[in-house]
Every structure is written in C-alpha cells, then in structure tokens.
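Much of what follows relies on a compact textual record of a protein's fold. Think of the row as the fold of the chain written in a discrete alphabet. An example makes this concrete, so a full record is given next.


***
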Amino acid sequence: MRRAAQCAVLAILASCSSHHSSATSTGPASTGTVVGTVTSGLGGSLAGVHVVVAPSGAAPLAAVVTTSAGGFVATSVPVTTDNGTVTLSVLPANCPIPSPTSYTGLTGGDTLTVDMTVVCSALVGTVRGTVTSSLGGGLAGVGVIVTPHTGGALGAALTGSDGTYTISNVPADTTGTVTLTNLPTTCTAPSAVSYSGLAYGDTVTVAITVTCVPAVGTVTGTVTSSLGGGLAGVQVIVTPSGATALPAVTTTSAGVYTVPGVPVGTGAGAVTVSGVPGYCTAPSAASYTGLTAGVTVTTNISVPCVVATGTVSGTVTSSQGGGLAGVQVVVTPIGGTALPAVTTTSGGAFTVSHVPAGSGSVALTSGLPLQCSTPSAVPYTGLAYNGTATTNVVAPCQPLGSLTVTVAPPNLGSATVTGPGGYTQTVRQTTTLTGLVPGAYTATATSYEVPGAVVGTVYDGTVTGSPAQVTGGTTSGLTVSYGVRGGTGELWIGSEDGSTFDWAAYTNAQLLAGGTPTPVASGSVFAEFGAAVDRNGTIWLTTASLVAGFTPAALASGGLASSHTSVAVPYGYFSPTFDAAGNLWTQGYGGIGELTAAQLAAGGSQNFAKQIATSVDNGGGMAFGPDGTLWVANSYGSDCYLWGFTPAELASGGGPAITVTLTNAGSIQAMAFDANWNLWVALGSSQINMYTQSQLAAGGAPTAVDSIFTTYPQAMAFDASDNLWVGSAVDSTLFAYTPIQLTTSGTPTPALTVKLRIPPLWLVFDPQAPSLLLNGARVAPTKAARRPR
C-alpha cells in the first residue's frame, strides 16, 4: 500500500543563478529561455518534477517536466521585466514542495539558468512482527535484525515479553531479510526470513516461528541412611510443580540418583523416595528450587533407619571330619566392631544374631583342640536385613595318636603322664592312652611308701622312653618300672664304744619285734660324730675336717666302708643338718660352716661357702626351724643355750639374733623338731624338754611345756609318724614314745624298747618325702597318712 506523506519544508531553496545567452539577435526580442536542474537534498536528480515559470507581470507558462537527469527547459518566456519565479510541483512523496524560486536578469533572446535543490526526507518504512516458539507463546528478549537488500543490516531490536518487535526507518527499497539472534539455548535459530513490498512510509509484517525443545534441567542427589552411608536400590521420583511426575530412577550402590530432562517449569518441584529397605521409613517429599534450563540442582534426602541386622550361622568342623565343640567364634562386619564370641555346640554349630547387614568375616579365636590349628577368617557376603548368611569353617587338624604306658609291677606307685596343652593323666597299671594330640609326652614316676608302724617301705619308679613322641594314627610307648628304694625302711644308728665306731641299719620289722636284733647292715667306719640324710637319700657322716656321703645305691649293696663322695673341710665335727635348699651346715669348735649342694656333689677339698664364728663349749646339735632360723645348742657350765641365727644372719655371717637360756641344764645331748615344729631338747642325764616356736622366738629363759624323763638320752629322732626315738648311752637301749605319750610330762613307759650292741651316738631315718630333712630340719608330715615320696 502506498500513502502520500505530507512533509514540511526542511531546507531553504537554493539561490537561483541566471545568465544571458551569448547568441546574436537581429533586434530586440520579446522572450527568453529559462533552463535548470532540480536535485534532491539527499543527492541525485529528481525526474518528473513539474516546473512552472511565471514572469513578473505576465501569465505563468505551461509546466515543463524534468528529464531523468532532473533538467528542464522553459522557452518563450516573456521578458516584460527581467525577473519572475519558478515553481515546482509533482515532487516525490518524501520531498515537500518548496517555495517558488525567484529569478532576475532574463532578457530577450537570452537563456537564464535556474538550478534548484529540494530538501527531501529519507525514504523509509517499518518492519514488525512476532517471534514465537514452536512449543507455543512468544519468545522474549530475542534479537531481530533487518537487512534491506541494498544496504547494511540495521541494529538489532529485542522482542518484548509477548515476542513482538517493531523496527522503524527501514530503507523503503521493497525487499530485505530478517534474522534472529540471542535465542534461548533450547531453540534453534532459523534461516533468514525475506520480506518484500516495503515502500516509503509502509509497514511490512514478518512473523517468525522458532523451532524449540522444552527447557529442562537435571535434579540429582544422594539418598542416605540416618545411620550413615548411601542407600542403594531406592526408587526416586521427581515431580516438577504443576507437571506430571517423571519416571522413577534407582539409586546406585552409593545411594546416588540423577534425573535428567526435568522440565524447568517454575524451577521448583518435589522429590519422593520409595522402595527403602525394611529397616527404614520413607520420609516426606523433599523440594527443589532454582531449576533452569541446562542447570543441575542437588537435593539430598536422609531416610530415617534403624540398624539393619541379620544372622550369621554355620558349623565348625575338623578337617579330619566331625563338628568341633566348645570353639569360640567371632563375627566381624566389614568396617564394624567384632561381635561377642559365641561357643559352638556339641555338633560344632554356631549362630550369631544381630549382625549388621552386609559383608564381614567369621574367625575362630580359641577353644580349638590342640591337634587343630586356627584357620584364616572365612568371609561372608550379602547378609540382608533379617536374612541369614551361612558360613562354615573347617579347621585343619592332625589325626590323634595313642600312648601305651607299661607299669611293672602294677599298682605299687603311680605314673603321671603330661603332654601338650596341659594334658595330665595318672596311671597305676599298664594303660593305653588314646585320643592324644601329637607331640611329646613325658612320664614321671611317683614314689610310694607302704606304711609300717615305725617306718614304711618306699618304692621308686624308673621311667624309660620318656619323653615319648606321639604321632597321628600310631601308638607310641614308654615304661615305668618300680623297685624298692635302697636303704628304705631302715633306721640308721651310729654307735661308739670306746675306740670302736660303727653304724648299722635296722628294718621296720626288727624294730617292731624289739629284743636284741641283728642289724641288716653294719660296718666299721671312721670316728663319725654326726649324720644327716639329704632329700636324695644319701647319708652324710661328719668327723674331724671330713664330710662323707653314702648314696642309696651304696647303702643297698652293703657298701658301708667306702663313701660315694668325700669332702675335706676346715672343720666338721658334729651336728650336720640340711636347710630347705639342700645345703649342709655343720658345727665345729671354729664355728658353723655351710657347704652348698653343688659343693657336696663336686667333692674334693672345699672351703665353706659361708662361715659364722662361734665360741661353742660343747655342741649338742643343730636344727632348722620352719622360718629358716638355724638353732644351735651350746653346753656351757651349769646353764645351756640355744642360739637362733636368722636367714639374714646366715647370709651375712652375724648373730645370733635370739638366745634361749636353759638354766641348770648341765648339758645338751641332742635336739629335734616334731611335726608341729616344737623343739625337743635332751638335757643332762635323764630329761627331754619341749619348747614351742613362740617360746623360741621370745628368747630368754622359758619354762618347758612338757618334760619326759628317761635314762641318759644320748641321741634322738622323730619318725614319719611323729614317734620320738631316743637312744640311751648308758645301757645301749633304743626307746620309742608315741605322740600321745609326749603330750603329758612324766616318765612314760616306752612304746618299744630295742637292745643295741653298743651305745648309740646318733639316729637318722630314711627321708619320708622329697622335702623332708631329718636330724632336726624337717617339714611336718601328715600323721598316719600314706604319702608319695
């Protein structure tokens, strides 16, 4: 469509110029010619413009039309005066008609040039339209660029909120193109759209539809348990506000979910979960906001849960077959704390409940039989909530073996067999021990005493083949042989008759028979002044500067003249006694000396390991008390003394710490402790007094608790039944008093009386237990009881 534009004159018409033709006339003429060019102020000539010349005082001439070059020629212009006007009409619409242009100087026959420039406005139109999405609705903020076909692109204009745009001052050259920029990322820019028919002042509508896809973003997050850690396999549904829920997605093993392609909509929505584990409760929907196209928003969800547990059960078996009972089984979840141990049943079964779901291991911690070794922990996997994971454990085990213990003769004593893992078994006759763990087994033979009224007969066992090596599936063996101990059951008596010194042994039966028995063993020896028996049954005799030992084997063979071991010492006259460690202490005029067990075994010439200098007038015996105090008798004048040397003093060589004074005693002949650690002291010619431990510890001059009167007690000793045996030097008689007789002071009738060949000098019994040291230092036995040696 075209419509005329009314324009105001924007410029002043150019001034006219005129000149006369140089042609020669033959006389005055009445007309002239007016010529010129009409141009646009925008540049270029204006063709088709009507030009009317009006001389002053004459009628206007007929209009002439400008050529394509804008020129015009008006002839026969009257020259009544030399001036007039030139008027333009039929101008282009964008050029307003200017005021008439005056001219002057036109003469007859001459030509006057009048050029005119018309002020014109630009030739433009308007392009408008709407940019819409293929999804519907206008697209706001899109840049629209119009490019006329004969000029450069105009500046971009942005679409409004409804997608409309308007671009003015578009050169009206009828055709051009429209292109789009700044489109949403979800839209694809179309090719340039052409327009045509744009004339001056006209408006062309160009509507453009852009292909777009929906604006979407991504919602992601992690679904976690309130106990910690992600929840796998949970269904997650995202629902944009005002839109339909998207298909559910499943969380990964770490509890992560990702939902792409979520319509942006209002940018908000909800996230719900379902399919949570049975030990969890699905929470209310979580919300998200701020979702825009291409953007990812994170929405994490915490699910309230309790600890998910199951049961791990199985059986612990031996590689040799069969279940293992009493084995401690510990289940440890991965990343968790070991559960309390459970114990397998008689069939080897175990069950551990309340085990956190997941994976872990089953280990054996203790209780395996010794023939079995601990296997590596066995893993379990996939323990589900309220589920059970069966996990069996096989322990590598060796086959068991057997051991035959031969006891000959049987039932005299017992043999104790010990082996791996604290195994202990006592046998009294030939026995095959079965089901033994492979390893070394050691047998020890226990000595036994066949009791007698006075002393018993002791049987010692000898073990051969120990230790025995037991191997799986085979039977090994060892032997225990019993025989009578040499010297067992005998009372040894040292005697002196003038220049004759001998010693003799009497059996239990001889002592019980009384009368005047013939010794079962006897012999002449050097002038021995005392004897003591060590824990091995060796009798040690003392004389001046000599200690001689006679082993049980020598005593049994009757070899009484030659000692097994001989030790030369500075002095060693009388009263030998052993301490609890097996060291021998002897008394002489130079003091008290100690020989260690090692020195006794070595023999030869030995210096005392320890010495205590004393001023002994007349020795009357030595004995160790229960606390390790050594009591030494000393006869001096009318009073006698008991000196007590403590263990500390024995070690340092000082003392004594305690002195007990026995007033008007005359002399001390012998002394010995009973089973209750009361000290019995033979005094003078007819009296034996008893003093308690408390009296000894107090020192001073105690009064005897009991006093037994007999005939000149020269030697005395207690037997295993706590009978007191007293040797009388006057009539070479041996008296025995029972424990009951010793409880009351007086002159009891001896329970036994045995006549000896010559007066006794000392008495010793064979030891009745390994820790029993006679001739004073001894451990209290259990009265009238059978005891192992």
About this structure: The longest strand covers residues 31-40. The CA atoms of residues 735 and 753 lie 5 Å apart.
